[in-house]
Design brief:
Layout: H1 3-17, E1 23-25, H2 31-41, E2 44-48, H3 54-68, H4 72-75, E3 85-91, E4 96-106, H5 120-148, H6 158-162, E5 169-175, H7 181-186, E6 192-199, E7 205-210, E8 216-219, E9 225-227, E10 235-239, H8 241-246, E11 256-261, E12 268-275, E13 282-283, E14 301-302, H9 303-311
Parallel strand pairs: 1-2
Antiparallel strand pairs: 2-10, 3-4, 4-5, 5-12, 6-11, 7-10, 7-12, 8-9, 8-11, 13-14
Helix pairs in contact: 2-5, 3-5
The protein binds gibberellin A4 (GA4).
Gibberellin A4 (GA4) binds at residues 83, 91-92, 94, 96, 104, 169, 171, 199, 201-202, 274, 310-311, 313, 315.
Pfam families: 2OG-FeII_Oxy, DIOX_N
Enzyme class: oxidoreductase
Domain Fe2OG dioxygenase: 165-277
């Protein structure tokens, strides 16, 4: 192990330990205020006491690891991700690439798991348990947001995720260890590569959990990047573009990315629930957040229209710009 490897790791650790990522304890009575503050400042926060049973999490993680360790020819049977299924390096349909393999699934369990695994029923039932527990947490958070924003109808946001027609997505990402370990050790393990390029999430809310590996970074208001210290026992919440619009710009959808250090020897595995509304839902600011004569900052659009526009964009595009009123 070279000296530069040690220095490199130490500097990553120190930038992570100094992070000021907002922390929300869902069991504490003041959490609604902290959530609102975090969504205004960062569009991002970490959650503890989330209530998702650890055995649901470990079951999905082990199912994911066994899927991603299948021979490539087997995994490819579940692809390409157009948009659902197995994807490798290609993200979306417009030329974005990253050092990542993934499975993108609809949360209504309509995916044909027989294409995917030898024990599809086990995977399907683990997903069902996991997604309903994570959706419950997401709804609790959306209700706390509504409380914190003094919105009378507590479920104004959460009802969109609970709707039978909710267009939510589940994503399993597998970031392989450095592909050129030998080369990396020759040059001291320095440098990094893009796992998942910078972007904002189009939906309302994203709920992310990863194993204990680094990589996730968020962009702050001044455009600088902060590394998020990994914590496999907690969840990380992202405000999505739709929530930015529904709060008339009060909450900001967070730009984030995954950057992999070239000396990473463990795969990063993340699981993300993207809570979206029904396709026909109009994405407009909640009435009480459009004060007096102040108008919506955005043109009116449905989730279907926004999603269609998102899917024809590049990952790093500012997708909301197209809908901003000048
Ligand atoms: C970002 C959030 C979710 O992962 C996702 C992504 C989707 C994809 O991977 O197919 C998109 C991306 C995401 C935004 C713009 C488009 C669509 C890739 C891409 C270039 C599943 C989603 O809903 O939007």
């Amino acid at each position: 192990m070279s000296v530069s490897y040690i220095l490199d790791s130490a500097s990553i650790l120190s930038s992570e330990s100094q992070s000021n990522i907002p922390l929300v304890d869902l069991s504490k009575p003041d959490s609604r205020h902290l959530i609102v503050k975090a969504c205004e400042e960062f569009g991002f926060f970490k959650v503890v006491n989330h209530g998702v049973p650890p055995e649901f999490i470990s079951e999905i993680e082990s199912q994911a690891l066994s899927f991603f360790s299948l021979p490539m020819s087997d995994k490819e049977k579940a692809g390409p991700a157009d948009p659902f299924g197995y994807g490798n390096k290609n993200i979306g349909a417009n030329g974005d690439v990253g050092s990542v393999e993934y499975l993108l699934l609809k949360t209504d369990h309509s995916f044909n798991f027989h294409k995917l695994l030898q024990t599809p029923e086990k995977f399907r039932s683990a997903l069902k348990d996991y997604i309903s527990a994570v959706r419950k947490m997401a709804c609790e958070i959306l209700e706390l947001m509504a409380d914190g924003l003094k919105i009378q109808q507590r479920n104004a946001l959460s009802k969109l995720l609970m709707d039978e027609q909710s267009d939510s997505v589940f994503r399993l990402n597998y970031y392989p260890p450095c592909p050129m370990l030998d080369e990396a050790s020759v040059n001291g393990g320095e440098g990094s590569r893009i796992g998942f390029g910078e972007h904002t999430d189009p939906q309302i809310i994203s709920v992310l959990r990863s194993n204990n590996t680094s990589g996730l970074q968020i962009s702050t208001r001044d455009g600088s990047w902060i590394s998020v210290p990994p914590d496999h026992t907690s969840y990380f919440i992202n405000v999505g573009d739709s929530l930015q619009v529904m709060t008339n710009g009060r909450f900001r959808s967070v730009r984030h990315r995954v950057l992999l250090a070239n000396n990473n020897w463990r795969p990063r595995v993340s699981m993300i629930y993207f809570g979206g509304p029904p396709l026909s839902e109009k994405i407009i600011p909640l009435p009480s957040l459009v004060k007096g004569k102040e108008e919506s900052l955005y043109e009116e659009f449905t989730w279907f229209e926004y999603k269609s526009s998102a899917y024809s964009s590049r990952l790093s595009d500012n997708r909301l710009e197209l809908f901003q009123r000048i």
